[in-house]
Predict the structure.
Amino acid sequence: MRLSIIGTGYVGLVTGACFAEVGHHVTCVDNDEAKVRVLREGGIPIYEPGLEQLVKSNTALGRLQFTTSTAQGVENAEVIFIAVPTPPLPDGAVDLSFIEKVAREIAAAMTRYQIVVDKSTVPVKTGDKVAETIKRYCKAKVDFDVVSNPEFLREGFAVEDLMKPDRIVIGVRSPRPVAAMREIYAPFDAPLVVTDINSAELIKHASNSFLALKISYINALSVICEATGANVIEVANGMGLDQRIGRRFLEASLGFGGSCFPKDLSAFVKISEQVGYDFALLKEVQRINALQMDRFVKKISDTLWVLKEKTIGVLGLAFKQNTDDVRMSPALELCQRLHKEGARLRVHDPKAMAKAQAVLPPGPQVEYVDDMDAVAEGCDALVVATEWECFRRLDLQRARRVMTHPILFDGRNLFDPAEMERLGFIYKSIGR
Ligand code: UDX
């Protein structure tokens, strides 16, 4: 089918490239001229495993094209996907101004029946507002349908999550657009859930909040494990074998971050308030997450006593592995806290250093180090802050030789306590 994606960011570009890969003809629209130019020249503005190859091959096959014109996108497609940002407002509510603007632009360009699909993460009842807006601004007064089709892509695994989704959720206000949506997703081997538009919108916030709850639950357990000499990984393994619980998202950490969980949690709490429900459970999920970071910083200051003028190596800046994204990154927040205490930082990340420098500029107190094994040189302590797989292969013998003292704080439980003790490290991790 002929599809358009308005908003070529992390969700829009992955969705467009995967739709093209399975045979659809896709026009990706973005109002950022520089981004469209980079894409047209075969470049990729974000790091996402597998994405570059998909974009290159499908552009070469003529199944994927890029433009800055929304009207062009509307003209080229039977189904138009909205994938523009829905950033958080200071009070936790969702900024829907980009959605509203794109809905007006689409309406102005419509000349025939088309389906407008909202893929951006939006509060429940947004679909109704998009429909009202299109009806009001559609000059041609043509018929249309609005559909909710939330995305469940994890950064760093987005292509994999879209090519092999656990489920596809379609929310409709009438049965008319269902056939077209089934045709779009026919090449994807996954259950397709067709429901009403409000339930579809709610599924997204409900799912993300539950995943965040799961992480805060294991992080709360990690505190009890530390107090009782239990091992949180062993506990997670024992819990996870229960099919009703599942092992994934039970990795104790220095807290969750990213551009989704914190934003979606705040949004869901706000949406609940607006409909008259105090979602105290989710507020506790947020509180546990903030406390987890405080506890980890305290571990470091309790061990080093004074942080001022200490040299601390930090491995990891991205909010998670396999991404260059540093938005709401726990690793970067940790760096900023240590920096504020007067520590001298030597930092490394396989992919996120460029984006991190915009937030944590290099200087006399902050050195960016290209080689992960060189970070430890002259350090009084080393910290693992992001769960990059490559950090497991850190040259610990070399680190021990070049550090002033062999002290390592592991915020992602990448190393084994017994092995670290054998190597002579003072080793602190999470929940063990
Ligand atoms: C999340 C949801 O997983 C995805 O379905 C949704 O579409 C977007 O939001 P994402 O934010 O990209 O995806 O990353 P995710 O893999 O969920 O991790 C979020 C944060 O939780 C990261 O900081 C990660 O390090 C942390 N995390 C994850 C843990 O601390 N422990 C875990 O067990 C899993």
